[in-house]
Amino acid sequence: MAISGALALLLAFSETSRTLAADSSNSTFQGRRDVSHVLMQNDVHELRTFYQRHLGGIVRRLLTAAHSRPLAQRPGLRLVGLGFGVPYIGVFRGEATMLGALMPATQGALVWPLSGPVLSVMVDEALLPLRDASVDRLLCVHCLEVAERVGPLLREMWRVLARRAGC
């Protein structure tokens, strides 16, 4: 029940973003109902602002509760957030043996975390800077829907995931 509520919130955010992007980037779009040709592209600043607001906080809490229990039971976890996963992977900073945030160049990148060693890096989505089978869990958030080339991104995700791993 909580997951479906969170997904509904994410879909609402996604649809709002598409409409705003269409309205602001194409003045001839005003008044048209078809937004299927507009790609939702939020940069890291817009995403950070969303997660700092009330609705973003609700989404973060619901999704974190859903994925943190199974992940917390994995000693030696190697976890990477791909896209804008920082609102969700921060809870594992003291637990994971490997933790990082890979942010696609098309979105931009932020320094994360604000204190301690920097664990974020801007990447080419088709060339992830990780060894083969080096990640146990790959948390993809705000990633696939904005990928320029989904096929190469999916191949890279498959390449870096350990064979017993999951997304």
Number of domains: 1
Instruction: Profile the largest sheet.
Output: 5 strands, parallel
Task: Using the alpha-carbon principal axes, give the shape.
Answer: globular
Tally the helices.
5
Separation, N- and C-terminal Cα atoms = 21 Å
Residue-averaged pLDDT: 77
CATH class: Alpha Beta
- Name the CATH architecture: 3-Layer(aba) Sandwich
The named CATH superfamily: Vaccinia Virus protein VP39
Low-confidence stretches: 1-39
* Percent of residues in β-strands: 15-25%
- DSSP E strands, number: 5
Structural class: alpha/beta
Order the strands across the largest sheet as they lie in space.
3-2-1-4-5
List the helices and strands and how they pair.
Layout: H1 2-25, H2 44-52, H3 54-72, E1 78-83, H4 86-89, E2 98-104, E3 120-123, E4 135-141, H5 150-160, E5 161-166
Parallel strand pairs: 1-2, 1-4, 2-3, 4-5
Helix pairs in contact: 1-3, 2-3
Provide structural commentary.
Helix 2 (44-52) packs across helix 3. The protein has a single domain (2-166), classed as Rossmann fold (3-Layer(aba) Sandwich), CATH 3.40.50. With 167 residues, the chain is α/β, with parallel strands linked by helices. Helix 4 (86-89) links the parallel strand 1 and strand 2. The protein has 5 helices and 5 strands; from the N terminus they run αααβαβββαβ. It is globular and about 40 Å long. The chain has helices at residues 2-25, 44-52, 54-72, 86-89, 150-160; strands at 78-83, 98-104, 120-123, 135-141, 161-166.
